[in-house]
Amino acid sequence: MRLILAAGTTRTAAIEGVSAAGADPDLRAHTPSADAEIVAYGEPVRAPVVPVSPTGCPTPAVVTRAVREVLGFDLTVVDGGLAEPTAAPTVTVGARPGDDIREPDPVPTGPGAFAAARQFGRALPDDELLVGETIPGGTTTALAVLTALGEDVAVSSSLPENPVERKRAVVDAALDASDAAPGDFAGDPRGALRYVGDPVLATVAGLTVGALETDTPVTLAGGTQLLAAAALVRHAGVDASLSLSTTSFVADDDGVDLPGAAASFDLDLTVTDPGFDRSDHAALVRYVAGEAKEGVGMGGALALADRAGVPMAEVRERVETLADELGGEP
Amino acid sequence: MRLILAAGTTRTAAIEGVSAAGADPDLRAHTPSADAEIVAYGEPVRAPVVPVSPTGCPTPAVVTRAVREVLGFDLTVVDGGLAEPTAAPTVTVGARPGDDIREPDPVPTGPGAFAAARQFGRALPDDELLVGETIPGGTTTALAVLTALGEDVAVSSSLPENPVERKRAVVDAALDASDAAPGDFAGDPRGALRYVGDPVLATVAGLTVGALETDTPVTLAGGTQLLAAAALVRHAGVDASLSLSTTSFVADDDGVDLPGAAASFDLDLTVTDPGFDRSDHAALVRYVAGEAKEGVGMGGALALADRAGVPMAEVRERVETLADELGGEP
């Protein structure tokens, strides 16, 4: 089993109030570089920070790393438009940081990254792939992509109170900037990615298409951003079976109809509850309060642990230890 | 335990008769990209070829991968100046492909790569590092570096008959091109790397210096190229303890005084014999005949297997299976 983690950035994350994936906009640019390092090495190496939300909720990379320490699965990070250096080894697909989607052509490297990631996905020799993402602001670009494809699917948030109105306003402005209306990019995933998407979604969607074309089973590991990736795969005309593994925090989000969305993209859905409500550790309590929820492959990693028969108590203990070691109060 | 593999190129490898790391000069440019993929995935992914010598001896990457499949150690590939795409995830230190050392300034990125690799080595959280290399033509640039530092150490070869005279002529021309005499770069490792070295040696030496400065034990995994790396580390003024693990094929090379060289750079030497003479598999027979000998961390991987109590018969069996799967007749 290999986790492919697409890590990148969009300047959409700098819009006030759309993302909690980093304590402030400057630090947020380091979040995907640091997340990749935490899953690869267990701690930040070149990145200057442990990503936390403004209230101190640690990045879901900690959970994915905790499971990796128990199960030892392989990791490949793909550079989906990183803006800051990372010590995590990365595969290059030509993605560059995405611009604010309210600009007219925010992801010119998107179609090329989709094509290169597809080739990479076709060539990978693994029996099975888990595909995750880390990109602050990613639920907003996911909402824009879903809207551009004409899919009426609500997205989750790394904030406990989902700033839905704010996201909708950004999406409207993004479509306006590209002279597009909702549904205009139906059947045109590359167009949706380029004009209202982000480089990580381009990478994830391309990789998934390539892997499925060569009959490699793929599990999308994440929440509503991965639903957008699934929508892109379906709009690319690929109807092979595809799975989505996410956390109970996304499933419990009242603003998201996860089973409905999974059904509309024909996804085999797995939801895993890590039982963080049985812990009184400050880091886990924040997840129970609805922060972070998902990301960096967390839901997929938890499902792997569950499938391998690892008790969730062991996962929680490892998460607590790692969170203590990493510290990272904002 | 983590193997750091520095993978890169020098146009010195295109000089007729200096390298067997690839069937011909064009394919040789793909060798380090393919080697990194074989250790990472078990087969070439983006690279168009399984590296073999002109006579069909498979790359030592196969041996390192075989041990990795048994022991499961971590791998980080550093881009030490790759010339062709690789699907192996890589860490960037700013190294670019090296030019033929008979040019006046063949490795302008060498000092920068040394500095960035040193920072990376300082930051790595591992308890212990194994450092290997893959660069066709690397023994010739290693000889040039040793000569420039004033160290009278002979180098090995991936060819059964070491083309010593040819290498010496290249080294003489390299020093001439930089208006330098043997020993002129003593105490100046960055100068030696830039004017007569290669980007992989710069990466390996910088990484080792950084790791040793932060008290991380380092084992140089390889043959005479790693002796040149050790010389660079000592000429950088670092006297911390340092180990070298290599194969019996290098130790048995009559042209190389391995114990003498190890003593002069104060290296703790480990030699591991994989017992390939007990196999009649075509791939292993070529090693016994003196081809390849070492590379891609092979000697270090074998020492790891030995330390972990893995019988060499098991390693051989895995190497034979992998060599059969990969094929790769020239």
Can you give keywords for this protein?
330 residues, alpha/beta, globular, 14 helices, 7 strands, homodimer, Rossmann fold, seven-stranded parallel beta sheet, 43% helix
Question: Can you describe what's shown?
Answer:
Two copies of one chain form a homodimer. Chain A is of the alpha/beta class and 330 residues long. Chain A has one domain (2-326): Rossmann fold (3-Layer(aba) Sandwich), CATH 3.40.50.10210. Chain A is built from 14 helices and seven strands. Chain A has helices spanning 25-28, 31-41, 61-71, 110-123, 138-148, 164-177, 189-196, 199-213, 224-235, 248-251, 258-264, 282-288, 298-307, 312-326, and strands at 2-7, 74-80, 90-95, 129-134, 218-221, 242-247, 267-272. A seven-stranded parallel beta sheet of chain A has the order 3-2-1-4-5-6-7, with helices on both faces. The longest helix of chain A is centred in the middle third of the chain and has 15 residues, at 199-213. Chain A is globular. At the A-B interface, β2, β3 and α4 of A face β2, β3 and α4 of B.
Helix content of chain A: 40-55%
What is the average of the pLDDT values of chain A?
A: 95
**Which fold name corresponds to the CATH topology of chain A?**
Rossmann fold
Which oligomeric form is depicted? homodimer
Give a concise summary.
2 copies of one chain form a homodimer. With 330 residues, chain A is α/β, with parallel strands linked by helices. Chain A has 14 helices and 7 strands.
